Amino acid sequence: MTEPHERDVNDNDNDERPGYAGPTTRAGATMSSGAKILGTEEARAFAIRAAQSLVDDKCTEVEVIDVTGLSPVTGFIVIGSGTSARQMRGALEGVRSVAKEAGTECFHISSDDDALWLLADFVDVVVHLFEPNARSHYDLEQLWFEGKRLDIPASELAQRNRGRPS
């Protein structure tokens, strides 16, 4: 039997399998989940804006990796480090606001028991926030070493704050 995430968007959506929520997008989000599929340039812009939001929320070592053509489930991965579970959760809320501005929303959020690794899946962009030791342990940058690293220009907030005393 074919699992829902393997079905094509154009497949018949009158499937009566238990738990089946309708036709799916390429990453497994259902058409009704609100996790809109973005075009490549829209996804790139969202990934960069999400990274800027993380930087604005004091996350460190923020990277955007273009995995288009390398990953079958997403186009861009955003990775950052936080100082505490509270700070990382707050930073993810900022990214969710950015998603809303982009016309999409989070498909799924996961975290480990100790909130050392938070993951937000926006279908075409996946955001990972780590406590620094957990980030070093999982080393996603090495896993996706073939992906292109994108520049993250300073956000409007960062540009406005440059001349202000800390």
What's the structural blueprint in terms of helices and strands?
Elements: H1 40-56, E1 60-66, E2 76-81, H2 85-101, E3 108-111, E4 117-121, E5 125-130, H3 132-138, H4 140-143, E6 148-150, H5 156-161
Parallel strand pairs: 2-5
Antiparallel strand pairs: 1-2, 1-6, 3-4, 4-5
Helix pairs in contact: 1-2
Structure, explained:
With 166 residues, this protein is of the alpha+beta class. The chain has two domains: 1-33, no CATH class; 40-152, Beta Polymerase, domain 2 (2-Layer Sandwich). It has five helices and six strands. It has helices at 40-56, 85-101, 132-138, 140-143, 156-161; strands at 60-66, 76-81, 108-111, 117-121, 125-130, 148-150. The chain has a six-stranded mixed beta sheet with strand order 3-4-5-2-1-6. Helix 1 (40-56) runs antiparallel to helix 2. The radius of gyration is 17 Å and the shape is globular. The termini are far apart.
Put simply, the count of helices is 5
- N-end to C-end Cα span: 59 Å
Secondary structure tally: strands: 6
Radius of gyration: 17 Å
Number of domains: 2
CATH topology group of the largest domain: Beta Polymerase, domain 2
The CATH homology group name of the largest domain: Beta Polymerase, domain 2
**Which range best describes the helical content: under 10%, 10-25%, 25-40%, 40-55%, 55-70% or over 70%?**
25-40%
